[in-house]
Write a structure and sequence with these properties.
This protein has helices at 40-50, 65-76, 118-123, 125-130, 142-155, 171-174, 184-191, 199-205, 243-253, 259-273, 286-297, and strands spanning 3-7, 11-17, 32-38, 54-62, 80-87, 93-100, 103-109, 133-136, 159-161, 179-180, 210-213, 218-222, 228-231. It has 298 residues and is of the alpha/beta class. The longest helix has 15 residues, at 259-273.
Amino acid sequence: MTRIAVVGSINMDLVTVSARFPAPGETLLGERFLSVPGGKGANQAVAAARLGAEVTLVGALGDDSLGTQLRDGLHDEGIDTTHVARLDDCASGTASISVAGGENQIVVVPAANARVTPAQVEAAHAAIGAADVVLVQMEIPLETVEATLRLGQRLQVPVILNPAPAQPLPLAWLKLARYVTPNQLELATLLGADPAEDFRALMRHAPCPVVLTRGAEGAWYREQGEPVHQPGFSVEAVDSTGAGDTFNAALAVFLHEGLPVAVRKACAAAALAVTRLGARSGMPSKDELDRQLTRSSA
């Protein structure tokens, strides 16, 4: 069983669905509302667990009712929450998500996620050292992202950095990552480049191997030489929320099979993730992923 350690955010997603996005200042009647567990760290942990990995999550929750719901949901997915702190006098993180036409707009309030510390990462060094792959995102303090990258290097555990939400990072940090997994805008932001520049040129300029996601087009990856394209899988998109998290989780879970195989499986898993409403409802099990791959090979 692949062992994955995830350092990242835990949110409750507050989702509204409408036929279109409202214009600035407009009040629009929606079609549906639901609250679902989310956060990039927790989402990647859940996706990895459903794909058969043994998962440990490092993060923080408020000492509130949302925190209790979120912790219980992680337990139900079989995720080790030993290193998920419960913080007094602090709310749990939330994300307000608007969905229309298969696309989404998201506003995140970090709350407890802003208090995930380097010391907490260091305290989890045994779990991180025992992992086959570590996943970290950027909905937690940057100093904690750096601490995760440096601990992974010290313990010789590969770290996948999913640089979302996008912001510039020191190139020295990027060199610590085994892979960086941005979309085109995120990669340009990381490198301080023009987003209109050809993404393959940006991949060549990166100081570390890059796996670049391109939505329905699939993904491109580069370790050395020229970027390689992995086509996407054709599905009927309902909600793209959580697709990137599913991609990253699958990449980590199957990385031991080699990068080309892992990227193909990650694209297939992400395609399944967009076929249902909500960040986690479409995250596939390993059996569902295997069936998708078999259908695509037939």
